[in-house]
Amino acid sequence: MFEHIFNNIQNSGIGSFLGKQNHLLGAIAELLHIAGLILLLASLLVTGLRLMGWGLVSLSVADLAKSTSRFIWLGLALLVISGLILFVPAANIYYPNKIFWFKFQVLLLALVAHFTLYQYVTRSKQVHLWVARIAALIILGLWFSVAFAGRFVGFF
Ligand code: HEM
Hints:
This protein is 81% helix and 0% strand. By secondary structure, it is mostly helical.
């Protein structure tokens, strides 16, 4: 269904340009992808563990979420930019890859959960501990699934 779109992306000017670059560019993009992943998951993990009541309890959830927010967005920005550098010159390879599609479906769910559930539990003053715990498990589960799926793409 989207095959021609993937084909157009790979054969576009930017796709051809990136495809002609030295392997070093791909290696740097992979490193930036991992750096973004660490920033994103580490920030979410800190807030997630606090939501579960497993540490940093001297800080409020709201303060912690506020301090980690910039690292979450920086991590995501790095992931998107480096991810596109990896994806665009090889789009046709990824089109038939089921894990690639799974990764982006879960990424969409993770973003929806971030803008709804995560905002709710980190901003509301009166959240029951078990609601916060379940929310943290769902949020971390989704983001870690994106990361695991990303790692698995190359094996399928
Ligand atoms: C627009 C966003 C993104 C794009 C376009 C993208 C694209 C890619 C591509 C093309 C690869 C290489 C796959 C391969 O050939 O093995 C990759 C790897 C990977 N991605 Fe992403 N990605 C994005 C976001 C994310 C996010 C949000 C995460 C984690 C939360 C993530 C985690 C990973 C991981 C762990 C790898 C494996 C890295 C490695 O084995 O060196 N990606 N990504």
